[in-house]
Write a structure and sequence with these properties.
single chain, mainly alpha, 6 helices, 3 strands
Length: about 170
């Protein structure tokens, strides 16, 4: 029983540390020195290529009106452009402009510098071990979430779950 309690405490400590890391990382990304973008997460998604507003909203877990407003702000600054989706004239596509790509690259450089400087006080072996562990944890959690999603979608009234397209 003592071993289970220790493992539970360790799992809680790792979970708390990951939450603290994500919070600090997001805070650093939003720092004026780290990024001049109103919403770096949105720009990072657009860095992957042209996307529909609905897809941006779904990936961010927010409603389409929020993304539309944020895209409007980025568009006013010349960082993104919108166009109609030729495959579906009701939908809009958004992509970064060259100025948006340049600002995203600058933000990535700033982020890299912040993280590199924060890790500078730790031995390289510790950093490499932590990197492997964090990646393994992320992969395992993604795998378990995918399995749970499949289980839920196959057991709910024999009707697959509908994912929001907004």
């Amino acid at each position: 029983m003592h071993l289970v309690a220790e493992r539970d405490a360790t799992a809680d400590a790792v979970g708390d540390a990951v939450v603290a890391l994500v919070r600090a990382y997001r805070h650093a990304l939003r720092h004026p020195v780290a990024s001049a973008l109103p919403d770096l997460e949105l720009a990072l998604l657009l860095g992957e290529g042209e996307l529909r507003l609905g897809e941006l909203a779904a990936r961010r877990g927010v409603c389409q009106s929020v993304v539309s407003r944020q895209v409007g702000e980025l568009e006013a600054r010349g960082l993104v452009v919108r166009r109609r989706d030729p495959a579906d004239r009701r939908a809009g596509l958004v992509q970064l402009t060259p100025a948006g790509r340049e600002l995203l690259a600058e933000a990535a450089d700033n982020r890299r510098t912040w993280v590199r400087d924060a890790l500078a006080h730790h031995p390289d072996d510790d950093v490499q071990t932590a990197t492997r562990l964090v990646q393994a944890l992320a992969d395992e959690l993604d795998h378990r979430t995918t399995l749970a999603d499949r289980h839920i979608s196959t057991t709910s009234d024999s009707t697959p779950l509908k994912r929001s397209q907004s």
